[in-house]
Specification:
about 325 residues, alpha/beta, TIM Barrel, two-stranded antiparallel ribbon, 12 helices
């Protein structure tokens, strides 16, 4: 699998990023190891996780995904991997158990390093904004982590354009480590949030873009249809799936994706990812899997090159999402 630079940095990452939110949730340790082995063998070296994964399972405190990755990495060449994790959510009791304060971030990094069984994190991301903490405090804390060698690059997730731009300005004025990566929600069926302003900011400021949910929670794999809206899936009950399966426009868009996939004789998911990768602003879409079959369905997607006419057809049919 080809690699690409992470924004303006010199760090190179694989063209697809493995999202590991399912690890410790719908994929147990054995299945997670299988998925990571297959991904690594296919040339995927960029893995994304977060400290809160999989806190939503009863009895879990968070950190399960990082722990599984840490065990797996003990048998892999660490220097060939780019590990990204995130902090912001509640991880321990008390007033400082969540947020983007220096107090929380310094402890959260130490905890993530312990679970990952590594002495550095390649890409450390703030999971979502914290209105109660000044930007300069968050950025100064991240800068100190980079200076200490515990973190190599920093990024943000779920930031609106104005806040991303303000963060870059604060970093520039105070000469602090800046966000070199953005993780937005983006897909063929979720376009306007990113395309309205964020895309222009990332292009102008050379910020890498690693979108999550590029397959619209599985809708763009083709497993849902007008007649089959109740597919066995861990995301079946999600608001996004309920919205898309009930929206005739989404099915019309999926029909077009299916036609192009049939023309190229590739899985439906390849077309949705190839559409995204045709945009030079996009660095590495994050794809998740809860079993080996789901991973194998998307491997090879970066090899599909769509024509300008095919990209236009997809753009036209997905306008308004």
């Amino acid at each position: 699998m080809d690699s690409v630079k992470l924004g303006r940095t010199g760090l190179k990452v694989s063209r697809l990023c493995l999202g590991t939110m399912t690890f410790g949730w719908s994929a147990d340790e054995a299945a997670s190891f299988q998925i990571m082995d297959a991904a690594f063998d296919a040339g995927m070296t960029f893995f994304d996780t977060a400290d809160i994964y999989s806190r939503w399972i009863e009895g879990n405190q968070g950190g399960e995904s990082e722990t599984i990755i840490g065990k797996w990495m003990k048998h892999k060449p660490r220097r060939e991997l780019v590990i990204a994790t995130k902090a912001r959510g509640r991880m321990w009791p008390g007033a400082n158990g969540e947020g983007l304060s220096r107090a929380h971030l310094i402890q959260a990094v130490e905890d993530s390093l312990t679970r990952l069984q590594t002495d550095y994190i390649d890409l450390y991301q703030v999971h979502y904004p914290d209105e109660e903490t000044p930007l300069d405090e968050t950025l100064a804390a991240l800068d100190s982590l980079v200076q200490s060698g515990k973190v190599r690059y920093v990024g943000c997730s779920n930031y609106p354009a104005w806040l991303l731009m303000k963060s870059l300005w604060v970093s520039d004025v105070r000469r602090l480590t800046r966000f070199d990566c953005l993780q937005p929600h983006y897909s063929l069926l979720h376009r306007s949030e990113f395309e309205r302003e964020l895309m222009a900011v990332c292009r102008d400021q050379q910020v890498a873009v690693i979108p999550y949910s590029p397959l619209a929670a599985g809708f763009l794999t083709g497993k849902y249809s007008r007649d089959n809206r109740d597919v066995d899936s861990t995301r079946q009950s999600s608001g996004l799936i309920r919205q898309l399966t009930a929206d005739e426009r989404a099915h019309v868009a999926l029909d077009e994706v299916r036609r192009i996939a049939a023309d190229h004789q590739v899985p439906v998911a390849h077309v949705a990812l190839a559409w995204m990768l045709a945009n030079p602003v996009i660095t590495s879409p994050i794809i998740g899997a809860r079993n080996l079959a789901q991973l194998q369905e998307v491997l090879g997607a970066p090899d599909l090159k769509l024509s300008d006419e095919e990209v236009k057809r997809l753009n036209d049919v997905s306008q308004g999402f």
